[in-house]
Design a protein that fits this description.
Number of strands: 11
Strand content: 35-45%
Number of domains: 2
Helix content: under 10%
Largest sheet: 5 strands, mixed, barrel
Distance between the termini: 26 Å
Radius of gyration: 17 Å
């Protein structure tokens, strides 16, 4: 099979931008540039993406859910929680580590992503993406104590 001359393709594949009502998002007060998570029927299976625009008048956000897109986000280095109490362990963040959307009450107000697969209550966090190398970020991070750092994350998005 051959591809015709008029065929075009992006190196990133199909770009997916969805308009999502705030009521269908875990964070009902999104801000541009924030990671986003859409509410799902089964915990841990939510679709994540990046807020590109908001329309507060109609309470909708445009979310980039393109699989493989890379954005820099604040990521908390928490690994485990003492269920219902507080963060328990932390670790360095390195290329290839998984990043989860973490809606735990103990998370810093500006941070929605962590390296913990479970939240403060012991429920599953949804997989948001994977840490990737960016020439402007030194990885791995060097701390095994509580920290929040700006890290490049390749989002899992929709279709992964």
């Amino acid at each position: 099979m051959s591809v015709g001359n008029d065929y075009q393709i992006s190196s990133e594949g199909a770009v997916r931008h969805w308009e999502v009502p705030y009521a269908r998002m875990t964070d009902a007060t999104p801000a541009v540039g924030d990671p986003a998570e859409m509410i799902a029927l089964t915990a841990g299976t939510e679709v994540g993406g990046t807020v590109l625009a908001i329309d507060a008048v109609v309470s909708r956000a445009v979310v980039d859910v393109t699989c493989g897109m890379v954005y820099k986000f604040e990521v908390r280095n928490v690994r485990t929680y003492n269920p219902g109490v507080a963060e328990l362990t932390w670790g360095v963040i390195d290329v290839g580590h998984r990043v989860y959307y973490d809606n735990s009450a103990s998370m810093p107000a500006t941070c929605k992503l962590s390296t913990s697969p479970l939240d403060l209550t012991g429920a599953a966090n949804s997989l948001f993406g994977t840490v990737v190398y960016s020439g402007t970020v030194t990885l791995p991070t060097t701390t095994a104590t509580a920290a929040t750092e700006e890290i490049p994350v390749m989002q899992r998005g929709s279709g992964a």
